[in-house]
């Protein structure tokens, strides 16, 4: 997918801002000029709009009604790491057994994080009121991680697809429980992760690394090639 005119210009501005901040992104599999989030994502809700009010209300209600256990679980399960999915994948899914898989998903995660960063800089949506973090809220990087990782992992392990996606959605929704993202951030993050992976899947290096990681993973789990 190619970008056009003002869309390319907007992405270049975002990349330039990151570079000036000393955080110029490096990509392994994703070619960011092939897909432009400023074109493919809707903008976040306007301040004081009906959608913005709905977002505020949803976060406030969830935060007010969350239990201590839900909060503790959301905090414990907020690290962006493919091995978060160990309960869905099963015994043997650990980094010490899977060096190729570990490296492969780290590269995917790095690409997605950089990709999300350009969009966050472009829209610069404020976080929910109680959050001190200043990094943009839209789209959610955790939701993008959840979607992109689940898509690739489920492709490697179709036998475990349902469990993997259930965990991914819970991981993304935890950001609302923690009060650090709005529902529209989560939805946009999920779309972002999907777009990122669909673009990576056309990259030759990705395809090579995917094949090696898949072979390693299925062997470690005792599954047929």
Mean pLDDT: 88
What fraction strand? under 5%
The name CATH uses for the topology is Vanadium-containing Chloroperoxidase, domain 1
The tally of beta strands, per DSSP, is: 0
User: How many structural domains?
Assistant: 1
The ordered string of helix (H) and strand (E) elements is: HHHHHHHHHH
CATH H-level superfamily: Phosphatidic acid phosphatase type 2/haloperoxidase
- Detail the poorly predicted runs: 1-22
- Separation of the first and last Cα atoms: 32 Å
Walkthrough of the structure:
With 225 residues, the chain is mainly α. The protein has one domain: Vanadium-containing Chloroperoxidase, domain 1, CATH 1.20.144.10. It has helices spanning 5-20, 37-40, 50-65, 68-76, 86-89, 99-123, 141-156, 161-177, 183-200, 204-220. Helix 6 (99-123) crosses helix 9 (183-200), helix 7 runs antiparallel to helix 8 (161-177) and helix 7 (141-156) packs across helix 9 (183-200). Mean pLDDT is 88; it is low at 1-22.
Please give the structural blueprint:
Elements: H1 5-20, H2 37-40, H3 50-65, H4 68-76, H5 86-89, H6 99-123, H7 141-156, H8 161-177, H9 183-200, H10 204-220
């Amino acid at each position: 997918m190619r970008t056009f005119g003002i869309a390319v210009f907007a992405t270049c501005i975002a990349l330039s801002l990151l570079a000036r901040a000393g955080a110029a992104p490096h990509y392994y599999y994703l070619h960011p000029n092939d897909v432009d989030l400023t074109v493919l994502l809707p903008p976040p809700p306007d301040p004081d709009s009906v959608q913005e009010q709905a977002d505020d209300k949803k976060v406030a209600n969830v935060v007010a009604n969350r239990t201590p256990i839900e909060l503790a679980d959301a905090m414990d399960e907020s690290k962006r790491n493919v091995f978060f999915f160990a309960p869905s994948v099963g015994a043997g899914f650990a980094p010490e057994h899977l060096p190729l898989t570990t490296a492969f998903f780290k590269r995917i995660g790095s690409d997605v994080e950089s990709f999300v960063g350009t969009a966050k800089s472009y829209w610069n949506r404020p976080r929910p009121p109680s959050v001190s973090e200043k990094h943009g809220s839209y789209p959610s990087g955790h939701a993008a991680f959840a979607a992109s990782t689940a898509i690739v992992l489920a492709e490697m392990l179709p036998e475990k697809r349902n469990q993997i996606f259930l965990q991914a959605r819970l991981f993304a929704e935890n950001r609302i429980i923690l009060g650090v993202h709005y529902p529209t951030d989560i939805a946009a993050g999920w779309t972002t992760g999907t777009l990122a992976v669909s673009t990576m899947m056309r990259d030759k290096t990705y395809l090579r690394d995917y094949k090696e990681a898949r072979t390693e993973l299925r062997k470690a789990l005792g599954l047929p090639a």
